Fold this sequence. Notes:
Rossmann fold; elongated; 4-stranded parallel sheet; 2 domains
Amino acid sequence: MGKDSILIVHGGGPTAVINASLYGAVKEAKESGQLEHIYGARNGTGGLLREDLIELGTVPDEKLALLLKTPGSAIGTSRDQLEQEEYERMAGILEKYGIRYVLFNGGNGTMDTCGKLFRACRKTGTDVRIMGIPKTMDNDIAVTDHSPGFGSAARFIAQSTKELCADVRGLPIHVVVLEASGRNAGWITAAAALAEDGDGYGPDLIYLPERPFDEDRFIEDVERLLKKKTGIVVVASEGLKDKTGKPVVEPIFQVGRSTYFGDVSSHLANLVIRRLGYKARGEKPGLLGRASMSLVSRVDCREAELAGRLACRAALGGESGKMVAFRRISSSPYEMEPFLADIDEVMLHERTMPEEFINETGNGVTERFKEWCRPLLGGELDPMISFN
């Protein structure tokens, strides 16, 4: 009787370190000596349903190592909307190819898929071990202290904010609004506060989706600051909503959980121009925030690889219906421990910023958040200097 095989599936938006998890999973699978094939599903669950599988077990180690330096998804990912019968079809395909182990690497939607396939396999009597690998730059997966992908996105926004603040300090003639990713959770937006570490090049105002956004109060905040300084940097979440829960800028496109937001940064800059008569502009790095390898966090990359390895190891050891998660032991010095969380506790339970991480006025973050976030950046940002 031949050996069993393993399948790795990517889902949702990629991160700078999703391929580090892929690397960890493939390396662990190869080193186990237990598997006949190590497959990747081309472009997510759709690839599995099309039986479009990539053989990863024969890729030389020197080429696999390039995954640690490659953003995006090397096997492709997707945002497929699945129906119940498709999960049962998947179970049949897994049986057909002798795939006994499946690793899903993704965020909330992918963990939901992971759980539903786990249930479908139990229902159909398919003997498959299914494990989740957390992945999201938004850091909104439940149970785990943080998710691989966030640390690098946090480092990117913190460094970008620092550089933007240096530019504005050198030519302090306008209000600049930097828009950060995060549909309902403000973790990335909040990480911009780490820009001020060491030299004070930090944002003046931060607005998170966890608090209702009031345009009048925003204008008051900016007007108050303009009495003290002429150059201001604001960081705002793409998912800002008013007190009724309506987005401050109507989404331009929406399919299922996938939302393409309008330009919040431009909207807020235009508010400043119209209501205060002051020069303003919006900046929106968008996908650059999840595709930057030059600003990848060493901690993030290391933990992403670890998550991939542990998921593979757990599946081969007989675990199923679980996700690798991290528990914070200490922030200074930084220490965490991995554990396995039941997938039922994770599925589509969105984790937002807790109240103790947001300041009382709702236009910034607390020191407690900074202490929590700082070690995930993977090292200090380079200091800057100004004589102005």
